[in-house]
## 1
Amino acid sequence: MNNLASFFNHFFITLSRYCTPCHCHHCDTPIIPMSSRYALCSDCQKLCTPKPSIMNTPTHTIHATFEFTGVIQTLLHSLKFEGNTAAADHLIPKTTTIPTADVVIPVPSHPSRIRHRGFDHIETLFRPLYGNRYYPCIQRIKKTPPLYNKSAENRKRLLRNAFQWNPEYTHNCKGQSILIVDDIYTSGSTINAMIQCINHHCKPTAITVFALCRKL
Ligand SMILES: [Zn+2]
């Protein structure tokens, strides 16, 4: 029975691919064209409902909006690797209270990655939320490989001297509260390297982290 249902489901999806031009990017269900700028079916849109969480580590507090799974993973992948900036529409939290501070500092991508993508995905996600409090004070001067599968010691070694402070922004940040923003929070190594850089160059009153997704 299940096989028969699965066959008809597959048949319907294949047939409809030829009859309708638009499918959900996540589950492939046929949808009405242009029902959203980045095509998601209504079921997958419901899965984009924010699930805010707060986590404390010895060095910082992290606010996250989503868990890095399912449709959220598809959306972020599409934004970062397929250049689909419309995917950000579903990722930018509109319904939850977002953390705030005097100054918002993005975790930078390496300039070569931004050139390759043609846009800065962190800026696409967060500048609309924070406007003129968004200061790209830190540059990534070392291209690091993905860190999620590296040991804590290796992550620390790879991130050594990865970030450089832009002194133009020092007067904007000194004695202010700071919010670091990033797309995915995994081990905290990148954030710890950012915090070290910030503490070294300006003495903030507080540092908080806001990650769109938390990788469990
Ligand atoms: Zn779907």
## 2
Amino acid sequence: MKMDSSWRKESFCAQQTWEAGYALGQKAFSGQVIELIGDLGVGKTVFTQGFAAGLGIKDAVNSPTFTILQVYEDGRIPMYHFDVYRIGDSEEMLEIGWEDYVYGDGVCLIEWADQIEDLIGEIPAEKVMRVEIRKDLSKGTDYREILGRIPAASGDEA
Ligand SMILES: Nc1ncnc2c1ncn2[C@@H]1O[C@H](COP(=O)(O)OP(=O)(O)OP(=O)(O)O)[C@@H](O)[C@H]1O
Ligand SMILES: [Mg+2]
């Protein structure tokens, strides 16, 4: 049986959050799904920009809020950047071809992934990494805690 694997990083400026994304982008693999969880303006897009750079993507990465999905194909593997903040329901995700991306050649980064937990739950657990970014105003306006977790595999194999 596989164990949960978690990590925690503290970030004191946008650059450090960018670097946390960069490090993960270097290790990203096809079929991987990264859930980005956290409040408005916490740094999910900054993290994604670093992640893209870690994949070798040179195109400018911006928030895809009004398009739900942006595809970047100039890196080591494709990156599918979702922002599902405005998604109505999971049906809408299926309509834009969600399954082609999740079971495709690239890595998915999903801002506001907690909006589509039902769809995420269908993905094999070992492919999913949850990254939660939190503020702690007692430590300053630019402080962020970044919590990463790879959920345990189902345990059926044990
Ligand atoms: N430690 C930090 N890490 C990340 N961003 C920071 C940090 N300190 C300050 N910032 C600032 O916070 C903002 C984060 O914006 P960003 O667009 O990445 O947030 P977001 O979580 O994607 O928001 P949204 O929910 O609207 O998509 C940027 O303006 C960035 O410069
Ligand atoms: Mg964003």
